[in-house]
Structure formats: C-alpha cells, structure tokens
Amino acid sequence: MARRARNLATAGILLGSLLTVGCGPSKPMGETVGGPGPAPAGFNAVAVQPGGPPAMVLALDGRDGARAWAAGRARRGSDEPVMPDAPVRIASVTKTFLAAALLRLWEQDRLDLDAPIRALLSDETRDALDGDGYDTGAITTRQLLAHTSGLADHWGMRLYQLQARYLPGRRWTRIEQVRFAMRHGEPVGQPGERFFYSDTGYLVAAEVLERASGQTMAQSVRSLLRFEAIGLNATWFETLEAPPPGAPLQARQYIGWQDGSSIHASFDLYGAGGLVASAPDLARFFRALAGGSVFERPETFALMAQPTPQSRAGGADYGLGLSLLTIGGRACIGHGGFWSHLAWVCPDTGAAGAIFVTDTERAGALGAVLDSLTP
Q1: pLDDT tens across 255-277, in order?
Q2: Extents of the domains making up the chain
Q3: Residue 140 pairs with which residues in a beta bridge?
Q4: pLDDT given at position 41
Q5: What DSSP letter does each residue of 249-295 carry, written as one string?
Q6: Residue 116 · residue 138 · CB < 8 Å
Q7: What is the dotted CATH code of the domain comprising 3-372?
Q8: Phi and psi of 292, rounded to 5°?
Q9: CB 3.0 to 4.6 Å from 53: which of 177, 230, 343, 362, for a disulfide?
Q10: Which strands make up the sheet holding 55-62, listed edge to edge?
C-alpha cells in the first residue's frame, strides 16, 4: 500500500498502541458476503487468513454502481455475521463532514473563512483559549479546518488517551475537552504558521458551525450536507440524534482486548469525531462530495481538497478536512480515522470507497485490500 494511504488508514491509532495488549492468534474471518459480484481478490485473501480482525467491510461506489462486502462477526464470541451495511463509529472521518458543512455556509455567504473566530465563540470557549495564550482575534475558521491554527491537540495527549482505559464511562463535554487541551498543552505556533493535527481545533470549528448556522452541530451537518437527498440512511451523530429509521444495529469495534462500546461516545463526539456511519454511506457521501451533489460550485470541493503549503511542508498533504492519498496506484482524496477507517474518492474517475476493520490492532489488514483495488 502506498505510504500516504497507510498513514491515513492508521491516523489516530496512537490510542490503540498505548492501551492494548496482544490478543493472540485469531481465527480467519471466513466467508465473504455482499456484492453484487465477487469481492476484490485482496479482500477475500485477508478474509481467509488467520490472525485477522474480527470483521472487515469494504464498500465501493462508482460509475458501475454501488457494491459492498463483509467478512467476520458482528461481535466477538457471536456467530452473527457482520453485514455490509453495518454502521460503526468513524472517528476522524467526521472531520470531512464538519469541514464540508462549514464550506457550505461559506458558499452561502453566511461565513467568512478568513475572519477571526472570536465573535463566533461562546464566552467560556473564548476565555479558555485567550486565557492560555491563544489569540482568537487572529485565528480563523480556515486555519481550524487546515490544522494551522496553532491549537494544541487534546486527543494526542497520553493523559487523555489513558482515560479510555481507566475511565471509559466518563461523559465529556466539549468545553471540558477544550480546557483539557489548554491545561495540558501549549500553543504549537502562531496562527497560520505551521501544520499540526489538532482534534481540539475541530471542536472549536464545530462551535463556529453552530453559532454561524443557528443550529446544533448535528442538525447543521445533516441539513447542509443534504443527507436525505444523498441517501445517507445509516449515518448519524451518536447520542446527539436518533439513528435514522430502519438503520442497522452498530457493529462492535475493539481496541485489542477492549470493547470500544465501553468507551462513552462523548470521548470523541463533538466534531473531531462523533459520526456513526456504514461503509456504503461513506462511499456514497465521498462520491457525492466530489460529484457536485453537496456543494453548489465545483470550486468549493477544489478548495477543500487543495493541500495547504504548511501541510506540504510537514509532509501531510492536507487541505480543509481532506488529504491526498493513493489507492491502487491512483491519486485520490480522503480521510482516515482512529477505528481503522479510510474513506476516499478518486476525482478523475469519480470512484469512491470506504473500508474498515473492527479491531485497531489489526489495521494492517487494510493494506492488502487497498493494494488490490483498481478505482
């Protein structure tokens, strides 16, 4: 697998490396279900190998239609097979949705990406940032989305990550997470100076979205990105809104031995993560994003996908909620997430896809599958 795809597929899996112990050999996932048509060779090859994840799902959406395959079990210790439409937590892939929603407001002249964020923050958020040496009169929404705001990253702090193991049931608020970053971190640069991946920055961006739109984050993302029109029937913000009618039950996800469902959703909920989605929904959304069904103008997607100079200097090739990557030798654009997720679209063909495994310790299984694709 190309380096960029591998880096994105495993982005954010630092938590897994800190909290897990070896699970020992596991049985092959076994028979592949789904379609139409056979699964890519790499998918089937991984499914029959011992030592793989509990389950794996792949969805592709392109000019020849939508297809999805699954192998493995919906949860450990069960004979219930995982289905291709099983929704799961998608972690940082949520950032693409949040950035797209803010860009929709920008298209509608309801938000200036380059205006200071100070006027769009609550008093407690503004006081938390300004009180720790940040200048909310200089930080912009564009910088938050591009990870160039200079904000520290609460998610990347070991102390925060260890909460998942020792206090998995804790219920966090957004301002608690912002204050955690302020208390345990320092500014990493002046606004616009350098690229530094920051979940905290996306928490602040989510507040900007709410105050600029006059709706909650969940309401804004759903309406601005036209979930119903696109056909996202298994995508929702966990605990912040009800699952869509008829949405399948979530599949279990694991961090080695630990059942991820024991970790309260608020640990990663407020814009840097938080969405639950099926792989077919993700593939459908990424295809719509590049294909003109989300934005009013193609220039908006081009802006979103264009890496910033700061990210290029840091080797990240990151734009506004999207990053360049390579799938099957083809230049694509997408985002990865902590729960061993990757979603992408290849603009030259319009082909999109999404893949996940259900154990962060088995993320290496993604490589063989991605190598076999011809998007």
Answers
A1: 988 999 999 999 999 999 999 99
A2: 3-372
A3: 116
A4: 87
A5: PPPP-EETTEEGGGS-GGGG-SSSS-EEEEHHHHHHHHHHHHHTSS-
A6: yes
A7: 3.40.710.10
A8: 95, 10
A9: 362
A10: 32-35, 65-72, 55-62, 351-357, 341-346, 330-337, 323-327
